[in-house]
Amino acid sequence: MNQAKGIILAVIGVAIFLTVLDGFYIVHETEQVIITQFGDPVGEAVTEPGLKFKIPFVQTANYFEKRYLEWDGDRNQIPTKDKKFIFVDSYARWQITDPLQFYQRLGSERGAQSRLDDILDGETRNAIAAHDLLEIVRSSNREPDTTGSVMLEVVEDSLESINRGRQQIQEDIQELGNQRAADLGIEILDFRIKRVNYVEDVRRTVYDRMISERNRIADEFRSEGQGEASRINGEKERDLARIQSEAFRQAEIIRGEADARAAAIYNEAYNRSTRSRELYSFIRSMDAYRKTLDKETNVILSTDSDFFRYLNRMD
Predict the structure, then answer these.
(1) β-pairing verdict for 85-96 and 186-198
(2) CA-to-CA distance for 108 and 105, rounded, in angstroms?
(3) In the CATH hierarchy, which top-level class contains the domain 69-198?
(4) Residue-wise over 281-301: b if at least 16 C-beta within 10 A, else e?
(5) Is the pTM of this model over 0.90?
(6) What is the per-residue pLDDT across 77-134, written as a single tens digit (0 to 9) for each?
(7) For residue 275, which of 25, 66, 192, 258 sits 20 to 30 Å off, Cα-Cα?
């Protein structure tokens, strides 16, 4: 009797242990759970965190993320509306909004990623093919902020107007993607084109055209600079000639005033006395002979010349 009671108690203990082991599950703040019974969902999704109970060995807890999830698209080669082949790399953020519908339609995050590949890659291709490259690269029309004539011309030539732009195209892809994913229990929260680049076949051609354009701009700037330099040099030469002319005029005025002052001094000294006049005449004559004669010059003097007279007096 005691042996049978012990067996019963042991069985009950094992049952309680197994019930506790498989009958309770924990839902964290970042999780949401769908309970399935023999593979079929039972009840509503469990989104509140805490310790929960299920029928052990019969029901199964399927966990799904409540946080934002990442989708990273493939780097695809896509032609634009203006027939330019480009590589487009994109990414998105999405969230499971209806766990029950998500489980029934997709089953797991891997299945959701595969379905998002079809939806977002497809909408990206459609959007790129329906717009010119300029619309995909830029998000708005920009006004040139410069006063240079060459730069204004270049900016006006290169910045054409756009109708929609990259930002609006991204929003359109996100909206269309959400429409196609409406019955999947998920929501696309954000979509962005991460990178746009030319394919290798046309990249070098584009680079060459860009280099040629920049060289043309540089030549125009250089031409304007040379013209400005010529103007500055012309003004410099004109100012230099004016300054030199004014300086020459001032020098001649000063030289004339000095000559007049010297002549006045000579006249004053000449008129003081007879001996002063004779000395003045002698000095002037000597100065004239000094300037006109050298060691190789022979002079024949008459007896009545002033110079001969001065020499006789020196004896």
Answers:
(1) antiparallel
(2) 9
(3) alpha beta
(4) ebeeeeeeeeeeeeeeeeeee
(5) no
(6) 888 888 888 889 999 999 999 999 999 999 899 999 999 999 999 999 999 999 988 8
(7) 258
